Amino acid sequence: MKYPMNLIAGVSVLLSSPVMSSSFSPAVFGRATSAFSKASNNGVKNAERMTFILRGGGEDDSIISSSSSASIINANGVNAGGVALSAVSNRGGEVEESSAAAPTTTSSSTKGGVGPNAPPPGPLRRLLPKFPWHELPNYLTYARCISIPIFLALSYYPVIMPNRAPVLSLLFAVASITDWFDGFLARRWDVTSPFGAFLDPVADKLMVSTALIVLAGRYGGIVAIPTAVIMAREVGVSALREWMAQRGARDSVKVGMQGKIKAALTMVSITLMLLVPEGVGLESVAWTKYLGVLGVGGAGSVVEGVVNDGLAWMLGPSLLMLFASAFVTVTSGSVYFKAAAPVLLGKE
């Protein structure tokens, strides 16, 4: 009789196994061979682990079970992924096992590269199944990093640019949205990565810091002071988190609700302030005259030909939102340092 190559491979492993004891009779071997052949004919070939249970007596003694995986027995009878085989004898109730373990890899090709806990693909993912969706969160973070030098260049060049304000505001708003969206996709598709977790907050802080510095140069101390507060807090909290991480207590200073409110206020205030047309000075805001030298800044009057000169009124509300953001920045930062105080003071 001519046996399939995969049957010969399985029998070879069995014959080399230490389980070949006195209980391994020719009848039991015949039943195991028959069951192996039936399993092969039924398509049981993509097995990462196959267990042969060989027991004496009875018609249902020979059982083959398999668990689904990406391992494939090729035409030469060799398991490409490494088959783990165990032969079990019930003589005296003792169990003997011989296994050949192999590294296991997780295949997510059925989900387009996303993680195992991702929901079923939606219309867009079904429409573009070959697109590397698992890399999209990182692509959004890269785009936010690239937008920083573009934003900086457009803030000053070309010198005459009538629609500079709406362009800068739109660029910053899109970058701010991607800051939320990339994290949302990474969690939803279960594709979080250490590099993404590192780069995402860095890109966020760089974008916000760049925009605040540009606005501080335009309006002077009234923007420079909250800018200094926000940037000092970011540096301090980042250093605190790194220090706590070295001591295995990073969770005690993880981002809280106040930090999220601070980030939202800062981004909205910057977006609105960037919409204010060029040439609108602080004298257009009534209450800034009570701030003395801090209430002086800007270029004076609206430059002729600017696109959105009707949005000059946004300067006052955006300044108030920036002050509110600086206040929440201080309170949220104090929460983090208070939580880390026992470790900082050596009490833990």
The shape is flat
Structural class label: mainly alpha
Second rung of CATH, namely the architecture of the largest domain: Up-down Bundle
Largest sheet: 3 strands, mixed
Q: How many strands?
A: 3
Mean pLDDT: 73
Percent helix: 40-55%
Query: Helix tally?
Result: 9
**Major sheet: arrangement of strands:** 2-1-3
Reading off the top of the CATH hierarchy, the class of the largest domain is best stated as: Mainly Alpha
- Spatial extent as radius of gyration: 33 Å
Q: What distance lies between the first and last C-alpha atoms, to the nearest angstrom?
A: 74 Å
Which strand-content bin applies to the residues?
A: 5-15%
State the CATH superfamily name of the largest domain: CDP-alcohol phosphotransferase transmembrane (TM) domain
What CATH calls the topology of the largest domain is: Four Helix Bundle (Hemerythrin (Met), subunit A)
H and E string:
HHEEEHHHHHHH
How many domains? 2
- Point out poorly predicted stretches: 13-25, 43-111
GO molecular function: CDP-diacylglycerol-glycerol-3-phosphate 3-phosphatidyltransferase activity
Organism: Skeletonema marinoi
Main location: membrane
Pfam families: CDP-OH_P_transf
